[in-house]
Write a structure and sequence with these properties.
Largest sheet of chain B: none
Structural class of chain B: mainly alpha
Helix content of chain A: 40-55%
Number of helices of chain A: 25
Largest interface: A-B, 53 and 74 residues
CATH class of chain B: Mainly Alpha
CATH architecture of chain B: Up-down Bundle
Distance between the termini of chain B: 35 Å
Oligomer: heterodimer
Helix content of chain B: 55-70%
Number of helices of chain B: 8
CATH topology of chain B: Butyryl-CoA Dehydrogenase, subunit A, domain 3
Number of domains of chain B: 1
Strand content of chain B: under 5%
Order of helices and strands of chain B: HHHHHHHH
Number of strands of chain A: 15
CATH superfamily of chain B: PhyR, sigma-like (SL) domain
Distance between the termini of chain A: 35 Å
Largest sheet of chain A: 4 strands, antiparallel
Radius of gyration of chain B: 17 Å
């Protein structure tokens, strides 16, 4: 194997791939949001801090209402920290203290003593607040504090708190916008009269319609609560003076960053195309769309074809967040079905498009005017997004997809129903379910309004604490009926179907299945599993280096579970019994390897560890011709094996790889001694080639 | 040469990150590409890697420049692992993806291109081990740090990866 040739081949092929300045700039841009707290804190960012403090504090205390009221007041103040009065800081500290949140008690006592100056009080209160929250949070453009950055105890907030917090947060955002202090201060929340006024303004001042014409126009308005999108529109007939004006590509004068979209539309709609379209038309719909803050989407539609085209652009850019630069408008296909009275726009997204997979299944735009279809099965190179609307912009009361009726069942009731169903079906306990994070969200499909409830744990191995799906349920909002209650295992048939399409992941899937079965059998549900992993992972200490107490405790709790599982399952688990076998995603191999023997603590009748090791060194030196001082100074792992209680063993493993013994010398030597008599029961050595000789799992 | 690797130099966190990006940015990016076989995703993953490194900078205890690089590579590999979880059912057009790479700055012979493709066609874990050992020229211990494995397991895996690569060469009559 020519190392230099391979290196050169890779170097040359990858030589064009370099981290340029723009990528570094992108990193810095991403980081900026998280750094602001250290420097000048913007109003929005301080709001985020407040909200987070409100959240974590409220989750820990019962006086949520008091906290809410207090912070509502604070949020109306000047949000620069320098503008914060000391009394607000002190009140925040007091709330933290009442909530029992750990803090620098000495600083708190000094703060309360009254013997410090105001300047010192400011410094002390800042110290307390920042020590707890200052560097442990993250804020993104949606004011959402990433769960993964929360303190561990806050990741498992109660459902009630979460819902209440979300509602309050939502109200705060609206308040901010109205007060003109938020990120989009130049706008304000739109009401129905606002959108009508805006539409009239558009018709009159941008398109030049006469007031008499405006008086004749019947303006229709609709609003999508979930998407926060307003639409206003009317029909323009040939009799209306200036009815053709909208075809001239005029736009609202107040252009926003969305103006790029208009450019696409203009590129698409040539003058000839517009004339051609108008030839046989008696009337054209005109639609204006804005969000609740009066921003963006100010497209106007002169034709249903254009309307569908715009809808697809909006779907891609606003809903799915594809960048404008990455959308190719000429790939949007618009068709019309006279029978069904439907306009359909479709767009094919290359599966290799960055983030395409993440964007496809989750996000869905307002359901007021179109239907979203996305094929999502099997190995695909592309996805087709389809956007549909009816022939005509319908009045609100005739809307094809009216908003779902308000739910008759509360989220809390739905959660209870889901728990009962899962407990009945799978025999899990309520405690086990409550130990997991519970997410309740809307699940609207095929017109059925349901809640979707997930019970998830976290994978602490993942850098961003990826969620582990455990159980899920769907509950009808109106009746409270549990539509579906499933465990992760129920997903398996679907996985099997997918493997038929793409077999390349079979090995990984099978490994994952065995892993999970083993972990569940070992009594791990949710946090229990991750806690033990966390202990193992955080210490960065492999099992062989744990002290005797830790090994004994582990052996007493985990070994019985693993033994029971191995006894109950006859399938081939040889994979796990090979501790040297590569295992990418779990340390399951270690689970079994470390439970093959029972470990305990030496009793009075046992030799002292030092004495036993001395005997072991002598035996190993003789057996393998390794100088005794090298063994004595090598990296040592110690086990006290009580698998046979009547004959406990001292077991030592010494790593001698770095002792400079030469290429053919052993990597490690092992010895097991009778703990009471000191008799050497067995010695081994581990050769250079790990595929030969004794495996660690055989010895541990 | 940036100041990050100068012994005793005291840099601010900002300077340190900038130095890391300049010193190891391309290596991280290439590692991500080899892991993901997707130039666009590799760019995202490389950026995520440095963002995570920034957030975890306080926890990192620098022992040597080598440990610094290994630490970044470990983050990169873990980041790619997360990305891959979302790619289970993706069919990768490997030659197509490689064509999407920026043109190599160095001239590539047909044999070198084939060798590179052979590496990229290896299973994930073998591909990474080849990358770290042959390309990044790390020691077994450093590779162990990156992959979260014991050196013996790294050695074991390396042997298997080499055997797989050798079989690929034999399959097309190349004895390199």
């Amino acid at each position: 194997m020519n190392k230099e040739y391979i290196r050169s081949a890779m170097e040359k092929n990858l030589s064009g791939l370099c981290m340029q300045g723009d990528m570094r700039a992108a990193v810095w841009n991403s980081i900026q949001g998280g750094k602001k707290v250290k420097k000048k804190i913007s109003a929005a960012l301080v709001l985020a801090i407040i909200l987070m403090l409100a959240t974590v504090t409220a989750l820990a205390v019962s006086n949520w209402e008091a906290v809410k009221d207090y912070l509502s007041q604070v949020s109306k103040l000047d949000r620069e920290t320098k503008g914060w009065p000391l009394e607000d800081r002190l009140r925040l500290v007091e709330l933290m203290h009442e909530a029992g949140i750990p803090m620098d008690e000495e600083a708190y006592r000094r703060l309360q003593s009254g013997a410090v100056s105001e300047q010192e009080k400011t410094a002390l209160s800042d110290r307390i607040i920042e020590a707890r929250y200052g560097s442990d949070w993250q804020w993104n453009a949606n004011d959402v504090i990433a769960q993964s950055e929360w303190p561990v105890e806050m990741r498992y907030q109660s459902l009630e708190s979460a819902i209440e917090y979300e509602q309050w947060l939502d109200a705060q955002r609206k308040t901010d916008e109205v007060q003109g202090i938020g990120a989009d201060a130049e706008y304000h929340l739109m009401r129905e009269e606002d959108i009508i006024a805006l539409f009239r303004d558009y018709l009159e001042n941008s398109l030049g319609f006469e007031k008499e014409s405006l008086a004749r126009m019947k303006i229709q308005v609709s609003h999508d609560e979930s998407a926060r999108v307003w639409q206003a529109g009317c029909l323009l007939t040939k009799e209306e003076p200036g009815w053709h004006l909208p075809t001239q590509g005029d736009q609202m004068s107040r252009r926003t960053e969305e103006s790029t979209m208009f450019d696409y539309i203009q590129a698409y709609l040539t003058e000839d195309m517009l004339k051609e379209r108008l030839q046989d038309r008696e009337e054209i719909p005109l639609v204006l769309s804005v969000d609740d803050w009066g921003r963006d989407t100010r497209f106007r539609c002169t034709d249903m074809e254009e309307y569908a085209f715009c809808g697809m652009l909006s779907e891609l850019t606003e809903i799915k967040n594809f960048t404008y630069a990455s959308v190719e408008p000429d790939r949007i296909r618009v068709s019309h079905s006279p029978e069904g009275g439907l306009w359909t726009a479709s767009y094919i997204v290359d599966a290799a498009h960055p983030g395409a997979y993440n964007r496809m299944p989750d996000e869905q735009g307002p359901d007021t005017v179109y239907e979203y279809l996305c094929e999502w099965e099997g190995a695909q190179e592309s996805f087709t997004i389809t956007w549909q609307c009816t022939d005509w912009m319908r009045p609100v009361d005739e809307h094809p997809l009216p908003p779902a009726a308000p739910p008759q069942v509360s989220r809390r009731e739905a959660l209870s129903a889901a728990k009962e169903a899962l407990m009945a079906k799978y025999g899990c306990t309520e405690e086990a379910l409550d130990a997991m994070r519970q997410d309740v969200s809307d699940w609207d499909t095929d017109g059925a309004a349901e809640y979707y409830i997930e019970f998830v744990g976290y994978d602490y191995f993942s850098a961003n604490y990826a969620r582990l799906f455990n159980y899920a349920a769907r509950v009808d909002k109106e009746t409270g009926r549990v539509v579906a209650a499933v465990s992760r295992e129920d997903w398996e048939p679907m996985t099997d179907r997918r493997l038929v399409v793409d077999d390349s992941n079979r090995e990984r899937v099978e490994q994952d299945r065995k892993d999970r079965a083993l972990r569940l059998a070992a009594g791990e549900t949710g946090n229990e599993l991750t806690d033990r992993h966390l202990y193992y992972d955080e210490q960065y200490v492999p099992f062989e280096d744990w002290d005797l107490n830790a090994k004994a405790a582990y052996s007493q709790t985990v070994k019985p579970r693993i033994d029971a599982f191995l006894a109950a399952h006859g399938e081939d688990l040889a994979y796990y019994l090979d501790a040297e076998k590569d295992n990418w995603y779990t340390i399951t191999a270690c689970y079994i390897a470390t439970t093959r023997h029972a470990y305990g603590l030496p009793d009075e009748g046992a030799l002292a560890e030092e004495d036993a090791f001395r005997l072991a060194c002598a035996a190993l030196s003789d057996a393998y011709d390794v100088p005794r001082e090298i063994i004595e100074n090598g990296k040592k792992s110690v086990y006290y094996d009580v698998t046979s209680p009547g004959r406990p063993l001292w077991k030592f493993c010494v790593d001698v790889r770095n002792a400079g013994l030469g290429e053919d010398a052993p990597w490690a030597v092992f010895a097991a001694l009778d703990a009471r008599t000191g008799e050497v029961i067995v010695t081994h050595f581990k050769p250079v080639n790990p595929e030969e000789g004794l495996r660690m799992s055989d010895f541990m | 040469m940036n100041g990050a690797l100068v012994p005793g130099a005291v840099l601010t966190p900002e300077e340190t990150l900038e130095a890391w990006m300049r010193e190891y940015g391309s290596a991280v990016l290439r590692t991500c590409f080899v892991c993901l076989a997707d130039a666009h995703l590799a760019q995202d993953a490389a950026q995520d890697t440095f963002i995570k490194a920034w957030r975890a900078m306080d926890k990192f205890r620098k022992q040597s420049p080598a440990s610094e690089k290994a630490w970044l590579m470990r983050i990169a590999v873990n980041t790619c692992r997360d990305y891959r979880r979302g790619m289970w059912f993706r069919k990768v057009d490997l030659p197509g993806e490689i064509e999407k790479l920026p043109p190599p700055a160095l001239q590539v012979s047909d044999g070198e291109r084939e060798t590179f493709l052979d590496v990229m066609r290896l299973p994930d874990k073998h591909r990474q081990i080849i990358l770290l050992y042959y390309y990044q020229q790390m020691t077994l211990r450093e590779m162990g740090e990156v992959l979260g494995l014991k050196p013996s397991s790294v050695h074991h895996r390396l042997k298997k990866a080499e055997a797989a690569l050798r079989r690929a060469w034999e399959g097309r009559g190349d004895d390199e």
